[in-house]
Amino acid sequence: MAKTLIRNNIRKLRFHCSEMTQQQLSEKVGVTRQTIVAIEGEKYSPSLEVAFRIARAFGVPLEEVFRYESADPEARE
Amino acid sequence: MNLSYREKSIWGSLATTLVVYGYYFATIFSGERPSQINRMALARLMSAVFVIVVIEVVYHVVIALTSREEPKDERDILIEGKAYRNAYFLLVADLFMLMGTVVLIGLTPFLTVNLMLFSVVVSEIVSSLTQLFYYRRGI
Lengths: 77, 139
Fold this sequence. Notes:
By secondary structure, chain A is mostly helical. Chain A has one domain (6-66): lambda repressor-like DNA-binding domains (434 Repressor (Amino-terminal Domain)). In chain A, 55% of the residues lie in helices and 8% in strands. Chain A has helices at 10-16, 22-29, 33-40, 48-58, 62-65, 73-76, and strands at 6-8, 66-68. Chain A has a two-stranded antiparallel ribbon with strand order 1-2. Chain B is mainly α. Chain B has one domain. In chain B, 82% of the residues lie in helices and 0% in strands. Chain B contains 4 helices and no strands. In chain B, helix 1 (5-30) packs antiparallel against helix 2. The interface between A and B is medium-sized, with 18 and 12 residues.
């Protein structure tokens, strides 16, 4: 499985939005449910536009949904 | 394994291509090979194309009734782009090899046409496999 370096809190945010389903989120964002599954499972990094639409669907800023994890271990500290 | 509409569609097309063209090429290359594209050879080719179209239409009607069809999004388009890239490189390489073979050895029109068709079919298979790979592994 190819993992991206972009981590996300989508699962947690869906839970806090009264257990929003992946289908409901996909309809709000305008992508397929499979794409939401892939983003949530960190198997696909969405475009900036889709990332903003996901953040807007939860009503939070982008950095509350996504964070970038550097491949360089020193840069993480 | 939970398959999306698009994955089911690709699997169906891949299976149809493998079975129908597999049978077509097995009969073409094992039997007597005319030098020209005669009426019989053309009829065989047309039959293969017709069978593929019929199976694909029926199969897609069935999966449209049983699965939820979703419009393509950016991930589908990205995966499709990678699949076309792989298929394109393979097709170009195949065509150059075929052109070299025609120039150096010389092939009958019948063999040339069927080898060109074979290259197109192999490219199509590579395109489907690439898409299935990225849908499963992630991109």
